[in-house]
Amino acid sequence: MSEKLPANAVVVESALRALGAGGEIVVLPEKAPTAATAAAQLGCEVGAIANSLIFDADGAPLLVLTSGAHRVDVELIARTAGAQRVRRATPEFVRAATGQPIGGVAPVGHPAPVRTLVDNWLSKHEVVWAAGGHPSTVFPTTFDELVRITGGTPVDVE
């Protein structure tokens, strides 16, 4: 199984096992850099996709796991995180913080822990799909498991 996964997905798979997560990484037929493309390939609602968005919060990475049906209110996130300035991170910042490319950032498997906020809306879905470290990999999980494995804080993002 692992030998067919992209290298970043193998790292994520190892992190998932170490954290006691239940889902297996799935390789999609095509890259899925957006929630809509992932949902279309998985046959699920866009809202069941956990978008992994990395923000630059006063120079530190902040991961927001948001429902694919939502847009993040950056000012709300800044207040929630207690940051003066929160902005979308550059691809270089994302890669440095996570070791993963934009469009494939997993909730886990980063070089160092990343502060994480988890959209409460994801709790409405029995199964949530999160990126597996590469734009063509995902894994099934739950809201509660995402909060647990990331040490994340449940929040409203919009």
Automatic annotation (TrEMBL):
It comes from Nonomuraea turkmeniaca. Residues 30-148 form the YbaK/aminoacyl-tRNA synthetase-associated domain. Pfam families: tRNA_edit. InterPro entries: YbaK/aa-tRNA-synt-asso_dom_sf, YbaK/aa-tRNA-synth-assoc-dom. Gene3D superfamilies: YbaK/aminoacyl-tRNA synthetase-associated domain. GO terms for molecular function: aminoacyl-tRNA deacylase activity. This is YbaK/EbsC family protein.
